[in-house]
Amino acid sequence: MDAKHVVELVYWRDLQRTGICFGASLFLLLSLSACSIVSVLAYISLALLSVTISFRIYKGIVQAVQKSEDGHPFKMYLEQDIAISSDVVHKYSELALGRFNTAVKELRRLFLVEDLVDSLKFAVLMWILTYIGALFNGLTLIIIAHVAVFTWPVVYEKHQVQIDHYYGLVNNQVKDVIAKIKAKIPGAKPKSE
User: Fold this and answer.
1) Which of 4, 115, 119, 156 is the most exposed, fewest CB within 10 Å of its CB?
2) Residues 29, 23: contact at Cβ < 8 Å?
């Protein structure tokens, strides 16, 4: 799935596809909040097996009554090649390795205080995350993010002018506050852009 398909999915261009994707993934996340992952996987597997076994038995009975030789009802899916090629694995593992190395370098820079202001920003972010962590568990945050991913693009698309206006106002205020803080911190050098 490329970026174009993801954009079409979160902007609800195909209502049926997006609805199925959003509903199934939200159901999975809500199930995980109530049960362990082992239980959720077992229940989903049992439900899927119940449907496929029932369908296979139904088709077998229909074939016996009609005396037809349609064959296995899932033959088309059984013959599909579902193996992942080594090229695809190498491509995505190299991509993941590159992102991992970038993240490690950035964390090293932040924790070893290469730039005091950036390390202080990171410390404030971690401090805020301690409060968020006290209010929500990780799965709740994932559910909130999931709902936001499927709702925010549509809301932004419909109210872009107002959102951009207020975002500009807030952004200017934040820049002013950061400039005042940087001016008061001794040894904080302004970044060259």
Assistant:
1) 4
2) no
* Per-residue pLDDT, 101: 97
Q: Which two tokens stand for residue 183?
A: 């001016």
What would the pLDDT profile of 124-171 be if each residue is shown by its tens digit? 999 998 988 888 888 888 999 999 999 999 999 999 999 999 999 999
User: Is the CB of residue 56 less than 8 Å from the CB of residue 74?
Assistant: yes
Instruction: State the pLDDT at residue 21.
Output: 93
50 close to 178: Cβ distance less than 8 angstroms = no
- Alpha-carbon span 126 to 133, nearest angstrom: 10
Q: What is the spatial distance between Cα 1 and Cα 61, in angstroms, rounded to a whole number? A: 38
User: Torsions phi, psi of 20, nearest 5?
Assistant: -65, -45
Tokens of 133: 């962590």
Which amino acid, residue 62?
Answer: V
Query: What's the chain's average pLDDT?
Result: 89
Amino acid identity, position 132: I
pTM of the entire predicted model: 0.62
Neighbours of 123 (CB within 10 A): 13
Cα 11 to Cα 158: distance, rounded to the nearest angstrom:
11
